[in-house]
DNA sequence: TCCATGGTTCGATGGTAGTCGAAGCATTCT
DNA sequence: AGAATGCTTCGACTACCATCGAACCATGGA
């Protein structure tokens, strides 16, 4: 009967799966483009655009136009707190989270996260990069480490050309199946590109799964998990 | 694409206006019956029952069967925190809350909250009861004060018969238009009954508004707001 | 034992909101 | 300028779910 703030309105905004996916994708505080969010949410671009308009209308998101890109981000910590609180309840509620992650084993092992690799392999690779000081992480920020440029040069990735774009070369992306970070950004894209170019793995159509071939996996491990 | 806890599922539970009303009605930590919640939400009993089943399924509510009543309550502080967090965002988002409360002036002044009086008059009455030690509040608990039984006896309410039922005689109910407590429980019901029996006020059909007659208002003020 | 009251289930209805294809703007690169 | 990319708008379709009346169960009281 009390009708305080219109709680139902904004709860219903979060209540749609597509929008919820978008919001959680932005929970790291980063900004993503509409197309990236469309992929994250698993919907078409028009649909995503509609959802984004609704989220903007509810003031849950802010947008920054940069050239022909529109970068969407959470509008503030209050929104993040809310998502966090909802997640807490959901964790206690939902179907027993005995298996935290996707039902699909291969998805958990290796999948593509828009344009870079995610899953166990990606997290292991990220850890090794940090251990070897190929990349260094300063709190939230991630940069190429002292031996980084050299390392990537040896495997045919020219890091000097990756810094040009407005897009950050290195970005941390929280892996939902492992709950740890993996590498995104243009460098992450370059690595995924190489994996596919070398035919170490292929992507079954209509899925995010990345299927390594047996020799491909060996080569990948030798190169990135040495 | 991270698919952590099923946040959309429980957000959509809160996203329905009827359910949101129910949840906010329970935000004081109390327990209400299905019919009370139906009135709070402004829906029919079958509809309310369906919503309650869904909220139970999502583990947002607990239920305690007492006789033929079923008392629903929030399942824990985590749920309350979530509602609180959502309210915070909603306050920043929604249509300017210049007028915190109902658009209807008469509603804000006096209305019925299921079976007791709410609104400005009810809050003023509650304050006076506390000031005069007619009732005393111990934190969350409310009891009849030292002069309480005598006071109510003089106006024709026998408090000794009100304690029999399982229902608490005194209960605090948070008034949404003033954001302060008013009196619920069987004593609150008795007072409302008296007001209507004395014809100090009447209830237009199909509304929660309580319309005092001019002499009725005088009598009410003399008796309860002296 | 029978009635009254509080709740839930069932079935049918209607409205609303999510979805995508196609077309339309805007910006940037060649 | 022309082409390509990123994004939004429009229109039509669909599916889901909130809603309520009526019937059905359960408990408590006479």
Describe this structure in words.
Two copies of one chain form a homodimer. Chain A is an alpha+beta fold. Chain A has two domains: about 5-95, Winged helix-like DNA-binding domain superfamily/Winged helix DNA-binding domain (Arc Repressor Mutant, subunit A), CATH 1.10.10.10; about 105-225, no CATH class. Chain A has ten helices and eleven strands. Chain A has a three-stranded antiparallel β-sheet. In chain A, β10 and β11 (about 210) form a beta hairpin. The longest helix of chain A has 17 residues, at about 75-95. The first copy, chain A, is elongated. The model of chain A is unreliable at about 95-105 (pLDDT under 50). The interface between A and B is large, with 59 and 57 residues. Chains A, B: InterPro entries: ArsR-like_HTH (IPR011991), HTH_ArsR_DNA-bd_dom (IPR001845), HTH_Metal-responsive_Reg (IPR052543), WH-like_DNA-bd_sf (IPR036388), WH_DNA-bd_sf (IPR036390). Chains A, B: One of its GO terms (molecular function) is DNA-binding transcription factor activity. Chains A, B: It holds the Pfam family HTH_20.
SS content category of chain A:
alpha+beta
Helical residue percent band of chain A: 40-55%
Strand order of the largest sheet of chain A: 1-3-2
The total tally of domains of chain A equals 2
User: Main sheet of chain A, how many strands, which sense, barrel?
Assistant: 3 strands, antiparallel
Overall number of strands of chain A: 11
Query: How would you name the oligomeric state of the polypeptide chains in this document?
Result: homodimer
Strand content of chain A: 15-25%
**Runs of chain A with pLDDT <50, length 5+?**
96-103
- Overall morphology of chain A: elongated
Secondary-structure element sequence of chain A?
Answer: HHEHHEEHHEEHEEHEEHEEH
Cα-based radius of gyration of chain A, to the nearest Å = 19 Å
- Helical segment tally of chain A? 10
Mean pLDDT of chain A: 80
Largest interface: A-B, 59 and 57 residues
Q: How far is the N terminus from the C terminus of chain A?
A: 63 Å
Protein name (chains A, B): DNA-binding transcriptional ArsR family regulator
GO molecular function, one term (chains A, B): lead ion binding
Domain HTH arsR-type (chains A, B): 1-94
Keywords (chains A, B): DNA-binding
């Amino acid at each position: 009967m009390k009708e305080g703030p219109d709680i139902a309105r904004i709860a219903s905004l979060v209540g749609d799966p597509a929008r919820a996916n978008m919001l959680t994708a932005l929970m790291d505080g980063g900004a993503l483009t509409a197309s990236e969010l469309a992929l994250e949410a698993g919907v078409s671009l028009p649909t995503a655009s509609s959802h984004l308009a609704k989220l903007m209308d509810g003031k849950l998101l802010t947008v920054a136009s940069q050239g022909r890109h529109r970068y969407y981000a959470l509008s503030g910590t209050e929104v993040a707190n809310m998502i966090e609180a909802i997640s807490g309840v959901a964790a206690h509620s939902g179907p027993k989270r005995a298996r935290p992650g996707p039902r699909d084993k291969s998805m958990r092992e290796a999948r593509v996260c828009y344009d870079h690799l995610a899953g166990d392999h990606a997290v292991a690779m990220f850890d090794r990069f940090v251990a070897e000081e190929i990349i260094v992480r300063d709190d939230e920020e991630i940069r190429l480490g002292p031996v980084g440029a050299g390392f990537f040069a040896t495997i045919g990735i020219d890091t000097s050309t990756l810094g040009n774009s407005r897009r950050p070369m290195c970005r941390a992306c929280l892996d939902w199946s492992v709950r740890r970070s993996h590498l995104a950004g243009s460098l992450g894209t370059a690595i995924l590109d190489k994996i596919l170019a070398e035919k170490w793995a292929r992507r079954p159509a209509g899925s995010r799964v990345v299927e390594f071939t047996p020799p491909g996996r060996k080569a990948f491990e030798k190169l990135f998990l040495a």
